[in-house]
Write a structure and sequence with these properties.
Number of helices: 10
Distance between the termini: 28 Å
Protein name: CDP-alcohol phosphatidyltransferase family protein
CATH class: Mainly Alpha
Family: Belongs to the CDP-alcohol phosphatidyltransferase class-I family.
Largest sheet: none
GO molecular function, one term: phosphotransferase activity, for other substituted phosphate groups
Shape: flat
CATH topology: Four Helix Bundle (Hemerythrin (Met), subunit A)
Number of domains: 1
Keywords: Membrane, Transferase, Transmembrane, Transmembrane helix
InterPro entries: CDP-OH_P_trans (IPR000462), CDP-OH_PTrfase_TM_dom (IPR043130), CDP_ALCOHOL_P_TRANSF_CS (IPR048254)
CATH superfamily: CDP-alcohol phosphotransferase transmembrane (TM) domain
Strand content: under 5%
Length: 221
């Protein structure tokens, strides 16, 4: 939702800075990789329990992600491979900090008591974080667009990092667990309704129509 509102509106104010980056020989793919490196450092920081520092590093990694897209658009270096690389490395950036927090809660250092409930909650957030873009990518093979839902990447980064910085990491994990899985469900129902509209029938009728199909037929329809 935040991503849709901002869209490319930041390109103009960022233009002087990203043009300077381009003149320095920095490419969008370099910034993409830099964002992953920053999030790897954040994950290691969270692993050792430095949560506020980890939150700041997650924000820094998000800024790299913001700049790589702006640089590609402003200097005309958008490419299909760059898009695939960005999407792939975004998944690493999404998961590594949460994984670091999960390991921190697991009590991997014997000097600390395990917090298995919080570790399990991190696992639920990781699952939801992976499913949100997966459902969108899968849905957009059968409908034009599926960017509905509250837990897009920008929102997740801001909520997670903000919670770490203010010391409300457990509350934020509950929020992310709820929002990510609600977004997955929202996208599934949205896709179902869009497919039903294409067929000119309500979603319920579409379900009845598919009852006679084999599983493979229903999956590819």
């Amino acid at each position: 939702m935040l991503s849709k509102k901002l869209n490319h509106r930041l390109d103009k104010p960022l233009s002087p800075f990203v043009r300077q980056l381009a003149r320095s020989g920095i490419t969008p793919n370099m910034l993409t990789v830099g964002g992953v490196v920053m999030n790897c450092i954040a994950g290691a920081t969270l692993l050792y329990g430095f949560l506020r520092v980890g939150g700041i590093l997650v924000i820094a990694g998000g800024l790299f992600d913001l700049l790589d897209g702006a640089l590609a658009r402003v200097v005309g270096k958008e490419s299909r491979f760059g898009s695939v690389l960005d999407s792939t490395l975004d998944r690493y950036s999404d998961i590594i900090p949460i994984l670091g927090l999960l390991l921190h809660y697991s009590g991997w250092r014997y000097s600390e008591e395990p917090r298995l409930g919080e570790a399990a909650l991190c696992g639920i957030v990781i699952l939801g974080t992976l499913l949100v873009p997966y459902v969108r990518a899968r849905a957009e093979t059968v409908i034009e667009k599926c960017d509905v839902g509250l837990a897009e990447r920008a929102e997740r980064v801001i909520i997670f990092a903000g919670g770490l910085i203010v010391g409300a990491e457990v509350a934020v994990l509950w929020i992310l667990a709820l929002l990510t899985h609600l977004t997955v469900i929202h996208r599934l129902f949205y896709t179902r309704s869009q497919l039903a509209e294409k067929r000119g029938a309500p979603a319920a009728s579409a379900t009845e129509k598919n009852e006679g199909l084999t599983p493979s037929d229903a999956e590819t329809e």
